[in-house]
Amino acid sequence: MKIIECPRDAWQGHHPFIPTETKADYINQLLRVGFDTIDFGSFVSPKAMPQVSDTAALIKQLKVSSGGTKLLSIVANERGAEEAANFDETTYLGFPFSISETFQLRNTNATIADSLIKVERMAELCSQKSKELVIYISMGFGNPYGDVWNPEIVMQWIEKLSQLEIKIFSLSDTVGVAKTEDIQSLFSTVIPQWPDLEFGAHFHTLPHLWHEKIDAAYRSGCRRFDGALLGYGGCPMAQDDLVGNMPTEQLVEYGKEVKELSNLDLQALAVAKAMFSELIT
User: Fold this and answer.
1) For residues 172 and 97, what is the distance between their CA atoms, to the nearest angstrom?
2) Domains of the chain: residue spans and CATH
3) What's the CA gap between 160 and 117, in Å, rounded?
4) pLDDT category of residue 28 using cuts at 50, 70 and 90
5) What is the distance between the alpha carbons of residues 6 and 92, in angstroms, rounded to a whole number?
6) Which of the four pLDDT bands, split at 50, 70 and 90, describes residue 238?
7) What span, in angstroms and rounded, lies between the C-alpha atoms of 99 and 157?
8) How far apart are CA 141 and CA 235, in angstroms?
């Protein structure tokens, strides 16, 4: 069971600006925990997201050891991808590919068709730079805009994008609308259909629904889960202030429950949790 910790998703909309050194201290503590991957920053427009405008400076202060936790940065276009790919410390570039036309326009100022062209170029860049592209199928379980959604649309895009040699897809419940039956249906279909691909779950959730979402995905074969300590952050378009990221501490508890907890340093995790509580107050 892989846990991807996402401080970037937690603090990208937070105000006021968190000093780069403070972010670095926190992420360096997360690196001691032993997560599979840390989604640490984003190479996007500083005007769009001021909180992550220091990602290039931040990465230089991180203590990444070879063979340990890997780093992932989110990009929204080719320019950001080119910048992210120049850092040896970064293993993964993540791109939010929405299957909701409305959300893709709002989130990246591009249509789905335009975004496909971007992904093609990013995939080529990643191949050249020895990086791996992770595609987040955002609005993967529905959307609040009335755009057509069904599992077949999700699978059509996985089929098309996988032809670009993309191997990791994270199905994203961007606004916390995923139903248990849809989670089960999607993961139990895509995992056997594409056994050479890795599928993850990036859930946003109401506090009382965390367990059923993780459980539905896990029991349908998913072993890659994104989370953020304290469930902080999430999508501002969720239209419900209680919808946040999947709390990492709940993912850890679930890992204990199914006896598949990876080798995490729980003491280091407790320190990180306390640091984050102070960081956001």
Assistant:
1) 10
2) 2-279 (3.20.20.70)
3) 12
4) very high
5) 13
6) very low
7) 8
8) 14
